Amino acid sequence: MEALLVTFQVLTIITSVFMRFAPYPDFYRVYKAKSTGEVQILPVVLFFTNCVVLVWYGYFSENILPLVVTAVVGILTCGGFIAVFYCYTDDKRSVYKTCAVAIVFIVLLCLYGAMGVEGVTGQSKSSMATAMGAISIGTSIGLYGSPLATIHRILRTKSTASMPFTFCVVSFCNSVSWVTYAIILGDVWILLPNAFGCILTLIQLILFVIYPPSWARARRPNQALSTDHRRSTLEESGKLSLSVSIIKCAREGVGRDRKSIDEKSVDFVELRSPTCSNCRD
């Protein structure tokens, strides 16, 4: 049992570190394009907030590794992602509002945690761990469910372009790892938020299948190759031609043209319009 616990402890560290860097592809595109595009700031702000809660829970439950260590990594990476988003967004007012709410929550949380450490609240370390664990359920649900904040846009546009694909996939894998680790460890406060995370991220992955983003709808390479091959074959045999018919009809003095455009020759042929009785002969 001890070996199994250590195995999943290592696995949770790996998946957690991957999750902390999961938003990187989206924010690297923001940096390269100098525009936020469809990227949303809410998931990253909630990620940052959740990591702060996990630091406190890990401290009071004496779970420094993997909980506290991976949470600190998350605080650092998310702080960088928020800074990149702020630099290139056109709606800085929205960023102010979102971050302001998160900062107020974090300040109150840290005050409560500090008072717990000093014994001002009269709670034991175990009791403080329970309180922080309960808070982490709420922040974790917010984190894992945050990509669904654009559900109306997804249903309207029939595209999941506004949802971070890499983040959703890694979040699902990370949640599964933590659920298994929590069952082995017997920690309900780790189990519950990650169980909700499994459900919410699974819903997001299903949405990606139903409404794939534009980059996933691109033609497969073999289809493009097949089309190019057929085109080159026709060109070599001299059978490829492009015909465009333009029919113009007028009452008086305007001719009718039919243009047949071939890659090797161009012919102009008059064509009477069957819908125009006043066209000249």
From TrEMBL:
Membrane topology note: Multi-pass membrane protein
Subcellular location: Cell membrane; Golgi apparatus membrane
Transmembrane segments: 6-27, 39-59, 65-88, 95-115, 127-151, 163-184, 190-211
Coiled coil: none
GO-annotated cellular components: Golgi membrane; plasma membrane
Family: Belongs to the SWEET sugar transporter family.
Protein name: Sugar transporter SWEET1
Organism of origin: Hyaloperonospora arabidopsidis (strain Emoy2)
